[in-house]
Amino acid sequence: MNPLKWLGRRRASVLALLAVTTLVTPAAATAAPDAVRASTLGAQAAQSGRYFGTAVAAGRLGDGTYTGILDREFNSVTPENEMKWDTIERSRGSFNFGPGDQIANRAAARGQRLRGHTLVWHQQLPSWVSSIRDANTLRGVMNNHITQVMNHYKGKVYAWDVVNEAFADGGSGQMRSSVFRDVLGTGFIEEAFRSARSADPSAKLCYNDYNIENWSDAKTQGVYRMVRDFKARGVPIDCVGLQSHFGAGGPPSSFQTTLSNFAALGVDVQITELDIAQAPTAAYANTVRACMNVARCTGITVWGIRDSDSWHSGENPLLFDRNGNKKPAYQSTLTALGGSAAAQTGAPSPRSAAALPSSFRWSSSGALIAPKPDATHNIAGIKDPSVVHYNGKYHVFASTASSAGYNLVYLSFSDWSQAGSATHHYLDRTAIGAGYRAAPQVFYNTQQRLWYLVYQTGNASYSTNPDISNPNGWSAPRNFYSSMPDIIKQNIGNGYWVDMWVICDSANCYLFSSDDNGHLYRSRTTVGQFPNGFTNTVIAAQDSKFAMFEASNVYKVQGSNQYLLLVEAIGSDGRRYFRSWTASSLAGSWSPLAASESNPFAKSSNVTFPAGTWTRDISHGEMIRAGYDQTLTIPACKLQYLYQGKDPNAGGDYNNLPWRLGLLTQSNSTC
Ligand code: G2I
User: Per the CB 3.0–4.6 Å rule, which of 144, 370, 576, 627 could disulfide with 617?
Assistant: First the structure.
């Protein structure tokens, strides 16, 4: 929200009213809500923290059937040919990133992961490389290629196939003859991995090969010995890609053993190029199950979308037929992705035990908190609340709004019945300072033993305080980003960058934000680096502008491996309401929970007002949490939501609207 935001908001509301009959209900909103079983490959894989990807050909991106399936089903992509040496550096020192960028940018805009394929391979290698005979020249050429390509895609590639297919078929268990091995010796693989690590330390580095799926094969054993040696000597390697181009018999019976034996060396394993001749349902299911049964098998990529897209199209080896219809193997794959080891043995899944319901009903309080203007604070509305219960008190932070602009306020009370009489502490009097500050979010960082207040200033900003109850203890604002990330600049259109939200799991912290233009963004840093290092900004979810407007909240559901996403939308009646989604990881893809106007998370239509209908908007708010730390954990039962509402007849300047805070309590909780 910037100081001009009211213009955008007023225009948005007017347009929403005009669009009553034309507002398109997004597909996601009408899909059957199902928190436990998803209806697409990517969403189902994400429930176990895995990805499900496909090879993509840039030349097919103009085909709507192709891109329709791509974006619906897959949350990871691998360029089939566009990042190979003969495309990227066809002549020495001259780099062509165009086709690779086309795939990379498209994936980033849709929140799909990207696997980089491939840096060093004896095929699709230009003859100017394969004819080099001098070791120093070839070493320089190889390292320069790795460095240039990885630098170009830095931050965009999740995992790189650093070296591809370096081992020989047959019984030798040795490396195959190639210009790299023949001129540089077998040490070229180690050298490539070391160059790759220094070029992009945040990308996972994989060795990728075919015919290494059967544990007893000499080739498998050769690759295994190399990875074991690398791990023993500290040569950087993070993953092994098993291509898995199978005949109609499917995977060898030892496939899962092979996956777990590699994983036991301390690397991730991935199925990187899966296709199975004639696509037998059982063969696909067995392949997927083997991955699901190995914790470090982090994802599966099929080598193309429709049979007609396959490099072996005559074998019809993929999950979609030539017309883009799902084949029987699609169903067996989807089912196998849902079959966690726990489910197969009949043990209750913790997710279903504490999962949220798929529809909600609420009872609302009256307006509990109203602005308290004083001689120097002329305030029309109190908005955007953030709340924690800590040390026997509710601590509420909120925006104060008037035509003159926005700032922040703090109040605390021990019981909701006292909320209205609590003292308002204006934070413009503290080091947070005057000027545009809005939409606060508060949490305690347990590692740093500091409270954080995250808010928007035009950038994403924060202040810290060792004592939440001391309003004067907040530090001056600092920014999370040096400037607006490029992906937001590219997608924001006429919207505003608003409503920053931080949540952490045990490894990473994520910063979500909205653009009033249909996009939810997500950046990542490690728990150790927080509050610094936010990077890898992607679109975490998107829809039409009013269907995914702003005020997103993300929470961990207590006692489950579910995360809950709420986003504020503008309904066909022009009123604000919330939609909801779940995911099994913070970086996962979001499946609709109660996500439509007819089955909303919270809208005037599923809220009763025993004390009188004081609002028809259920707008920017926050869940009452089970704790107060950076994990933003909420209970699975008896949810409560503090929100902003206003007199339905009020109008005029958006910034001057009479927003008040009220509390929803879930009335259909079954636990
Ligand atoms: O061969 C199957 C895969 C084995 N593992 C490594 C992968 O990179 C490899 O992919 C295939 C692509 O699917 C094919 O599309 O690699 C082939 C090249 O070795 C690709 O074929 C090439 C043709 O050879 C070229 O003639 C053609 O111009 O595809 C190019 C683009 O269509």
Answer: 576
